[in-house]
Amino acid sequence: MQKYCxxxxxxxxxxxxxxGDSYMTMYKTDWAAAGSHxxxxxxxxxxxxxxxxxxxxxxxxxxxxxxxx
Length: 69
Prior knowledge:
Layout: E1 4-5, E2 11-16, E3 23-28, E4 37-38, H1 50-64, E5 67-68
């Protein structure tokens, strides 16, 4: 799965939600940290499949000009 870096230096990626039944766009401020947070945006809703969430993230990244890592 493709990951991105934003202008704040956050690593942005698709991961499973807390319940494990949905996929959402997450971020880490410290790349080595174990914990992550949900990136909340209208264009990035929780999805049933990883592929759907990744497609949302790819479109968001293109629109925002995020750097691929």
